[in-house]
Amino acid sequence: MSMTAFPALPGPYSALPASLPVAIDYPAALALRQMALAHDDHPKYLLAPEVSALLHYIPDLYRQTLIATLWNTGARINEALALTRADFTLTPPYPFVQLATLKQRTEKAVRTAGRAPAGAIPSRIVPLSDLQFVSQIQTMVATLKIPLERRNKKTGRTERARIWTIADRTVRSWLTEAVELARADGVVFSVPVTPHTFRHSYAMHMLYAGIPLKVLQSLMGHRSTSSTEVYTKVFALDVAARHRVQFQMPAADAVAMLKNIKSEDYVALAGRGSVVQSEQLNQIVLKSPAILPKQK
Fold first, then answer.
1. pLDDT in tens, 54-89
2. Which residue range(s) make up the domain with 273?
3. What is the pTM (predicted TM-score) of this model?
4. d(CA 38, CA 95)
5. Whole-angstrom distance, CA of residue 37 vs CA of residue 88
6. What positions carry a catalytic annotation?
7. What is the largest CA-CA distance in the chain?
8. How many domains does the chain have?
9. Burial of 33 by CB count in 10 Å (0-12 exposed, 13-18 middle, 19+ buried)?
10. What does the buried/exposed string (b/e) look like for 198-229 if buried means 16 or more CB atoms within 10 Å of the residue's CB?
11. Which of 43, 94, 119, 236 is 20 to 30 A distant from 11 in Cα terms?
């Protein structure tokens, strides 16, 4: 999948085949992402087909499910690596996962009975709306026999067992291997693929699906809307591009229009102040032979 050139932005969005998770104009979405890449402050994200393609090059179920978790929840890597089986509630109709940052987990560990520390934020709930992902989690737990608890060798205490007992750098190496496998197969990604890329990808995917910004703020665990609004900057480019605002007009028509407005008309209009009444201006402009219909 070469991303060096993109089709021109078309007009209105058109529905794409049902094989896409969210019906978007994919060529236009690629072109929009390419435009956003020109600005360092804009998020670097993958689109749904790109994530699915990348997961194809991670054949190992254990690895693939972790990356799928980042993609389906928008979790930070430290949040995902702290997950246990107990954090997932996979029963219908609304399966969900409970996420907490490292800071929140530390606060919870030192919290005493009574009120929580000032400024503490409870763990956030993220619904798992893709049933294929829910099924993947269940399959991995059953296949790999992931335990609910295990004994801590250092403390001797029984603790909830983390699902992925690895470090951040290990996940990065998995992604590097997948990107290299994809490149060898002719599939190229135009953005750097890191664990955090999937958090940005989740946010953009949810906005494409029509999720309101305030809802996304809650799902992402952002304290301030300003952190979430960074994603709307990408869509601001899209709105501006699709409006196709025209700035040029035929020079001959412009000259004819200005010639038809007499100098005394300019003086009269200026004498009424800088605000020109639209009806008066229309009467003057309509005198222009460039606007009147041509006589046959």
1. 999 998 999 999 999 999 999 999 999 999 999 999
2. 251-285
3. 0.73
4. 38
5. 35
6. 76, 108, 196, 199, 222, 231
7. 98
8. 2
9. buried
10. bbbbbbbbbbbeeeeeeebbebbbbeeeeebe
11. 43
